Amino acid sequence: MGILITGATGFVGGAVLRQLAVAGHDVRALVRPGGDRRNLTGLAVETVDGDLRDLPSLERALRGRRILFHVAADYRLWASRPAELYETNVVGTRNIVTAALAAGVERIVYTSSVAVLGLNSDGRPADEDTPVAFADMIGHYKRSKFLAEAEVRRLVAERGAPVVIVNPSTPVGPGDVKPTPTGRIVLDAVSGRMPAYVDTGLNFVHVDDVAAGHLLALERGRIGERYILGGVNMTLKEALGEIAALSGCPPPRIRLPHGLVMAVALVFEAWSLVTRAEPRVSLTGVRLARKKMYFSAAKAQRELGYTNRPVWEAFRDAITWFRDQGRLP
To answer: Would you call the peptide bond into 171 cis, given omega within 30 degrees of 0 as the criterion?
Structure first.
């Protein structure tokens, strides 16, 4: 069956593409001209140039395709031009799903994020039904992904779009070419550029488990439903301890108060307004760190047969990949 995948040059999309290629599927990847294509190396995949904001290019890419994996997203916690996140994540998602409907695509797996989900104030892991509102979204990335998923749900309800939604938590592993904000945590920890930490928590998962969850959603997911593809809930201190044990570097032992880190982020962002370079510490990142972002993948386990491996394997594979890429000594 013919498959089109967006975002295959990125972190999660590259992992999904690898599993589709290994399974022998006929895969076409929508790629932006001039983009980094390292995650396509050595894989049997047809490429077609296009852009989520260019409808004619999407129509060309979808010809003869029965399945769509829409994985592409602009994942940045800071942007000098925030409108770019909405253009890609909201308008781009509307465009590709609308074009897929016109092309007669039979099944769509849309990659959302746990960023759009609610959190429990008492720290209990949240699930797909934990209450949430747009006002709870911190930063342009979360807001844009919240609005994008709302667009998908509208197209399911109003036009019968055959979409299954997956919500990855915090993926870690090989292929993080950009790298993502999470990949930078690994890089900074192993490089000794993270002498301290804040009291926060995340749900870490191997990127290949997230990719496997995408294929399970294609096979077993219910139209209009969302599934958290998560792993292990850990404090940042625990995660940095795992990374230290694997890399041989000492873990940070100083816990910084959020207020102090907020002041540091203000300085970094002020400088970024001058340089247009992404700050090492962003205000959005600090605001997000005030809450422990813990989630449960029980629904995906129950309905899809989803599983996840030990989290240390994700950190190990990320460190190995960054070293192989010359990003670490």
So the answer is: no
